[in-house]
């Protein structure tokens, strides 16, 4: 792999995870805020809210994980390595 | 690129290195087969032990199995619906148990003690082939569920509620297995990577809470995979009026 490809791959891998973390981060913050509000309003529903919150967290997290998969492909199985 | 330059013997991580077995023209990843057979064996042994000498008042392993059965039934019933869930409970339950045992087995069993000539033993779900196979099984399952229950009326689902939805629904058939497989694969591999990197930086104590977090997320991922599989099947067998 020549040095330009290596450099570009490493930068792209960093960007893939870094940029990919922005959206889910905002989303998880909103979701957690909503859940806290819900628990404050209705403390007896805490168990149900927590379950739903964790499930939706995992969905949001998987968006960042897609970025991570791209980063891992660039680092360990680079198709442009030639 | 080769393995990461980790010096500690138990923190080595070899991404993209496999123990190849040649069968005919196929090259298969031997380490995945070994771990998954072992874990499937353990799961089968647990079920056999738990269902021998069953009692009215469940105790020990039987109690655990009945709890799992209840859990999976509730999962299937809420997603698929009262009418069709019985047919699909075994499938959903198998998916859930296999993924759960694979994720935890990969993290809890000290596989590093067994040395392989190439590659390393670990969670079978940290290999993209396993997760893609599981996701394609889910695709087949929901097509079969819809077609067998509704016949060609299944395709009404593609134009429901309006025909404008048709292209999106077709694209969805491809994105469903894609996202299912990448989500599981990425999460499990990410857990292993995070622990490996932390062990490399701070070998003592600090990685332990992260390992617990990894156990937690991998249990949630098993639940998510099973829930989504059930949801897709439920979507396919649902009646539109």
Give a topology summary.
The complex is a heterodimer of chains A (82) and B (241).
Chain A: H1 3-41, H2 46-76
Helix pairs in contact in A: 1-2
Chain B: E1 20-23, E2 26-29, H1 30-51, H2 60-80, H3 85-108, H4 128-150, H5 166-201, H6 207-237
Antiparallel strand pairs in B: 1-2
Helix pairs in contact in B: 1-2, 1-3, 2-3, 2-6, 3-6, 4-5, 4-6, 5-6
Folded structure, characterized:
Chain A: It is found in: Cellular thylakoid membrane. Chain A: This is ATP synthase subunit c. Chain A: It comes from Prochlorococcus marinus (strain MIT 9313). Chain A: Pfam families: ATP-synt_C. The complex is a heterodimer of chains A (82) and B (241). Helix content of chain A is 85%, strand content 0%. By secondary structure, chain A is mainly α. Chain A has a single domain (3-74), classed as F1FO ATP Synthase (Up-down Bundle). With 241 residues, chain B is mainly alpha-helical. Chain B has one domain (9-237). Helices cover 65% and strands 3% of the residues of chain B. Chain B is built from six helices and two strands. Chain B has helices spanning 30-51, 60-80, 85-108, 128-150, 166-201, 207-237, and strands at residues 20-23, 26-29. In chain B, helix 1 (30-51) crosses helix 3 (85-108), helix 2 crosses helix 3 (85-108) and helix 4 packs antiparallel against helix 5 (166-201). Chain B is globular. The mean pLDDT of chain B is 87. Classes of the chains: A mainly alpha (82), B mainly alpha (241).
